[in-house]
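Weekly sync, protein design subgroup
Attendees: M.S., D.O., the rotation student, P.L. (late)

Item 1: inverse folding check
M.S. brought a backbone from last month's batch and wanted to see whether the design step gives back something sensible before we order anything. D.O. pointed out we never logged the input encoding, so this time it goes straight into the notes. Structure tokens as presented (615 positions):
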């Protein structure tokens, strides 16, 4: 690691001369902690090799062993409760057709449990004793995700739920006779159904109709009912309890002294004595512990940033979790029984933490007076110098920009750029009404949010109004194309990563298993064709003036490569500037370091040429 001088101004200048874009991009991370049954080892996923792989750390000796060494990223890896085996899965070339394997951690030998590359297999839940796990698959017809239960002892699986659509098992009863299933009609509307695994009887726990979202079921050990997050009849999710005997739902946290934020994480200790409640505070994670018997609350003293991946040991004495903030990359930490927090992984990085810049949370006013939250990095400036800006729009659209570590964005800040991460309407974390505020024809309002963000930036005295760039991936890529097409005079350049250029052709060509959920968000091909056409950048592609760089994976099952090809070809044919980078071993985004190291320096060169050096 480079040792920097004491003077802050000198340190910043030295950082700019020492650290390349490769240095920022090669910052390693670790995530997805899972305890071994005896809690002496910690399993996790890391990108140390440049591709996500599974690792096992002996907590006493500190020894780390790499368990997988493939060319494809590991998508999940964990110990089922009380079982000294590891379930893990991956797909090929970004095709998202995940397959499931089982590993013996003592010798590293593995076997396939589900292996048919024509279909998708994803584990969603395990029983409390680890002998059963629920998984979903579209193998019945390629479209619908049914729920299956696999018996690890017998090596047998059976389909237990097949109403159609997106379904997943979200909670075994302690005696393994019942499974709570969630049917996802849209990303903001789902339903819980209780399935009797012995008789096949189904009981609707919640109703289908209405805008509501429910989380996983966390059963009490006596099987009397389960806790779950629920936003029915309220804007923000809170904790409720389902009583199995009375078939009734009781609100739990509504009357308690808790913050009025979105409840997004629940984790129960195996003995059912304590609940972890994670709240989304403008992207930051606040954690509370609740004693189940007394309902007494204790605020957890954890680092301030984005936290996730919470996992209790079987005895409930320790808690592993992921933590990152704007300056510190994601790693795994442990909350000890004493209350102290220790770092379990320390992923390597070449760029020191104090070289990176913090984020500032701001709110700007949009066209209708609504306050839109955004995170802003501002670079060190010389005097009253105005800086160029990158507006980086998140995907989803139900995603949320959070105060985490973005190596590429930190690189741009080190080069004198300001970076803005907005959470325009449609983002999650601000209640269900805000998340639904961009559905179908209301998308014009989120497009105006981008326009008014540009207006806000132009009003700042630290921004060069002629050098504001829009960039994003997936839905953020779509919003990039929307910006340069519908607001051609506002943006100096656009960088689209796996975005949609035409909502009609996108829905026609996306994987069949995704279409129904996406139509609920954007509009259906049958009923909303005019809306889809109107909202498509290809409709006004002739208006694009800004230079455009498009990046896409050839195997993308969500947004087909044709979405990139058609807009780039049209812009070039009409005499504009557009470049296309295609990666043939990638899908919906760039998962492999070698491809990021190729693509992102080209992004930097593109913006330097067309924005910074433009006269």
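Designed sequence read out in the meeting:
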């Amino acid at each position: 690691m480079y040792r920097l001088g004491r003077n802050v101004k000198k340190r910043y200048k030295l950082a700019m001369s020492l650290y390349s874009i490769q240095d920022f991009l090669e910052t390693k991370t670790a995530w997805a902690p899972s305890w071994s049954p005896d809690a002496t080892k910690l399993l996790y996923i890391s990108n140390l090799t440049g591709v996500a792989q599974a690792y096992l750390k002996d907590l006493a000796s500190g020894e780390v062993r790499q368990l997988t060494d493939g060319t494809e990223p590991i998508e999940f890896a964990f110990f089922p409760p009380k079982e000294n085996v590891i379930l893990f899965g991956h797909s090929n070339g970004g095709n998202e057709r995940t397959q499931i394997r089982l590993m013996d951690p003592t010798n590293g030998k593995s076997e396939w449990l589900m292996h048919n590359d024509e279909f998708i297999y994803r584990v969603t839940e395990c029983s409390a004793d680890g002998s059963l796990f629920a998984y979903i698959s579209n193998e019945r017809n390629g479209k619908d995700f049914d729920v299956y239960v696999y018996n690890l002892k017998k090596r047998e699986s059976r389909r237990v739920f097949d109403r159609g659509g997106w379904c997943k098992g979200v909670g075994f009863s302690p005696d393994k006779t019942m499974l709570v299933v969630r049917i996802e009609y849209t990303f903001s509307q789902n339903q819980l159904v209780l399935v009797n695994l012995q008789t096949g009887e189904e009981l609707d726990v919640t109703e289908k109709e209405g805008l509501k979202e429910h989380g996983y079921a966390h059963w009490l050990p006596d099987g009397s009912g389960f806790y779950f997050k629920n936003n029915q009849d309220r804007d923000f999710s809170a904790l409720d309890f389902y009583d199995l005997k009375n078939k009734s739902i009781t609100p739990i946290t509504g009357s308690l002294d808790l913050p009025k934020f979105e409840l997004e994480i629940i984790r129960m200790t195996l003995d059912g004595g304590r609940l972890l409640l994670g709240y989304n505070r403008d992207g930051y994670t606040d954690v509370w512990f609740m004693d189940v018997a007394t309902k007494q609350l204790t605020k957890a003293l954890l680092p301030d940033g984005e936290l996730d991946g919470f996992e209790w040991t079987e005895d409930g004495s320790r808690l592993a979790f992921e933590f990152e903030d704007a300056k510190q990359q994601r790693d795994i930490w442990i909350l000890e029984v004493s209350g102290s927090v220790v770092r379990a992984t320390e992923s390597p990085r070449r760029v020191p933490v104090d070289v990176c810049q913090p984020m500032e949370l701001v709110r700007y006013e949009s066209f209708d007076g609504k306050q839109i939250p955004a995170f802003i990095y501002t670079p060190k400036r010389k005097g009253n110098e105005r800086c160029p800006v990158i507006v980086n729009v998140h995907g989803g659209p139900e995603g949320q920009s959070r105060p985490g570590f973005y190596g590429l964005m930190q690189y741009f800040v080190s080069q004198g750029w300001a970076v803005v991460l907005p959470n325009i309407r449609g983002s999650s974390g601000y209640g269900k009404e805000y998340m639904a505020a961009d559905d179908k024809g209301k998308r014009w309002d989120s497009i105006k949010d981008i326009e008014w963000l540009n207006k806000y930036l132009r009003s700042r005295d630290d921004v060069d109004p002629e050098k504001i760039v829009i960039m994003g991936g997936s839905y953020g890529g779509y919003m990039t194309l929307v910006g340069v097409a519908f607001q051609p005079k506002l943006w100096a350049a656009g960088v689209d990563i796996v975005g949609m250029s035409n909502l009609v052709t996108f829905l026609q060509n996306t994987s069949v298993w995704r279409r129904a959920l996406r139509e609920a968000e954007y509009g259906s091909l049958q009923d909303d064709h005019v809306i889809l056409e109107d909202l498509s950048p290809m409709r006004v592609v002739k208006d694009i003036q800004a230079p455009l760089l498009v990046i896409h994976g050839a195997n993308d099952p969500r947004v087909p490569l044709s979405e990139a090809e058609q807009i780039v070809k049209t812009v070039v044919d009409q005499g504009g500037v557009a470049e296309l980078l295609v990666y043939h071993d990638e899908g919906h985004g760039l998962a492999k370091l070698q491809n990021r190291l190729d693509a992102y320096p080209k992004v930097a060169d593109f913006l330097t040429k067309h924005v910074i050096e433009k006269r």
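Discussion: The chain has eleven helices and 36 strands. The first helix runs from residue 8 to 18.
Action: P.L. to compare against the previous round before Friday.
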